[in-house]
Design a protein that fits this description.
Length: about 290
């Protein structure tokens, strides 16, 4: 019974993350850009996480200077990942974007072998081949998939892989989840804010409805989804929780088909299946 509850937590977390494209695309309809949405999400998230840490968790929020510099380094890759993924929604279907982003476990394996000198085995190679084959099918899709959108979606996965590997290498994953999330949100807001003046797309009108949706997006991803995932992780373990996270791209695909009337051709379906298969194989046989 306990494992089933943990599985429910993990699935709900993945489904909440999978709703990100839906909220982002609705916000874009108000004239907001990926840069603005990312900046406001990080800025609002910083305030929300500060309140959670100070008044609910009552944890120490200040960290040593050395740790803060390391968090700043990983925040660059996290902010880049969000910008790339949000930008990809403008060029390719939301479900396809999330699935391509889910190539990150393969990148993590390759980078762990290079950066952390962890060996590659046959399973790692098979997963890499499946993911690459999936991308090839997507690029050969008859539905005229935008190559630029595919590229930045894959790069979002690469950026996330850098974030994951460096977070482990710097031992930042030992910090309390909300404290680490607070500093990443704060630094990411500064990083995106520093880039925005060079994009020539600075906002003029802050639409109340759009701001409300961004707050909902922030709470959905930065608070509820993270808490549910951590609960699921603590109950059913890393392997099952990670495997159940594949509901995220599946949710995005379903949302794209039902809400945005996105097309699902045979090549796209095969590509998505191959990429998800590589993730499932990678996680299901992973030793704790």
């Amino acid at each position: 019974m306990k494992n089933k509850i943990g599985a429910v937590y993990s699935v709900l977390s993945a489904m909440l993350f999978g709703l990100t494209p839906l909220l982002a695309k609705i916000i874009y309809g108000y004239g907001y850009t990926s840069f603005l949405v990312a900046f406001l999400r990080f800025a609002i998230g910083t305030v929300v996480l500060f309140i959670v840490v100070k008044f609910h968790n009552k944890q120490k929020i200040l960290l040593p200077k050395k740790q803060l510099l390391l968090i700043l380094a990983v925040s660059f890759f996290y902010a880049t990942m969000i910008l790339l993924m949000y930008s990809a929604y403008d060029y390719i279907d939301s479900g396809l974007t999330t699935t391509l982003h889910f190539t990150y476990p393969v990148f993590v394996i390759i980078m762990a072998a290079v950066i952390m000198h962890k060996g590659l085995n046959k399973r790692h190679i098979i997963c890499t081949v499946l993911a690459i084959a999936g991308i090839v099918f997507l690029n050969n899709s008859t539905s005229a998939v935008n190559y630029y959108g595919v590229a930045i979606a894959v790069l979002s996965g690469l950026s996330y892989a850098f974030y994951i590997v460096l977070t482990e290498k710097f031992k930042l994953d030992s910090l309390p989840v909300f404290v680490l999330s607070f500093w990443i949100s704060l630094f990411s807001a500064f990083i995106v804010g520093a880039i925005m003046p060079f994009t020539h797309i600075l906002p003029i009108d802050l639409n109340p409805k759009a701001i409300g949706l961004i707050i909902l997006l922030t709470l959905t991803t930065n608070l509820f989804a993270i808490v549910l995932f951590q609960k699921g992780l603590s109950i059913c373990g890393g392997v099952q929780a990670s495997l159940l996270s594949t509901f995220e791209p599946l949710t995005s695909v379903v949302v794209g088909l039902t809400v945005f009337n996105e097309n699902l051709t045979l090549n796209v379906f095969i590509g998505i299946t191959l990429i998800l298969s590589s993730t499932v194989i990678l996680v299901i046989y992973k030793k704790e």
